[in-house]
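[job 0412] stage=complex_fold ligand=adenosine monophosphate status=START
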Amino acid sequence: MGLLSRKFKIMSLVVVGSMAFDALETPFGKTDKIVGGAATYIAWCASNFVKPIKQVSVVGGDFPQEELDILASRGVDLEAVQIKKDEKTFFWSGRYHMDMNTRDTIDTQLNVLANFTPVVPESYQDCEFLMLGNLVPAVQLDVIKQLKNRPKLIVMDTMNFWMETCMDDLKKVIAEVDVLMVNDAEARQLSEEYSLVKAATKIMAMGPKYLIIKKGEHGALLFHENHVFFAPALPLEEVFDPTGAGDTFAGGFIGHLAKTKDISFNNMKTAIIIGSAMASFCVEKFGTERMREITKADIDGRLQQFVQLVNFDIDLV
Ligand code: AMP
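[job 0412] stage=complex_fold status=DONE, emitting structure tokens
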């Protein structure tokens, strides 16, 4: 490393996760294949807070080049996004129930994900923050192992699909991370506990010092030791498509932490409010559509709404 780069070492956020085609069905409409994927949503969101974002993923020859170009123009470094020309991009299809909080996976076609071997380039080695978005657990672990220095903070997201198909691998990754985020059903599935408080205790005993349990339109809980903090979700008049809300939440959370470089519990509280605010945009339109439109002023305005939502005075009785 040259003197200059050592002196002005820039923050680095590495994001790992799926880049995908999704076909979605909600009570309000249906889409054919649109661009989605955990790392796609995370990058769209986190790029509002930090640059560069160093992406690790894989797509097939069918993935639109324009999508890669637009991410690159937002400061997303795609050096470690492999393009498998003769293969197909990961495909996921889901249908939401009327309450929009629950969904069924209709189809998961791993395609390029089935034998993805990530290669972490030298230029990613200064990674201070690592966001392991939803992906094959063995790949998530491989990326951790390829980093020569442990990042300051490793945050991980996953889903029920991996609990059902490779729980042992999943637990190995969970043991390595600082913050795990899952939704309430996944927390119950992972811990075999109904009470989320008991579930949190069991999951933190598996390795992570912090646990975030996402509860869709009912907000998110942040657990650490015997502390718990709650961030609401903004009550919205219209929710069109919750796809990617969890990933967008993750992007806001890690984006804020990487920007401020402060990994205290207090700053994580702010980060889950920011995650919730960002997720509230994501659900307003299908796919990544809304994330493509929002400006800094929109984000500031929404954060103000969150302040109003939870701000109250109380006298002790
Ligand atoms: P979320 O709604 O935040 O839970 O994430 C939705 C995104 O996750 C979609 O865009 C899908 O492409 C992606 N996804 C669905 N299943 C998987 C899986 N098994 N592994 C990785 N990504 C997935």
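Residues 1-8 have pLDDT under 50 and may be disordered.
[job 0412] exit 0
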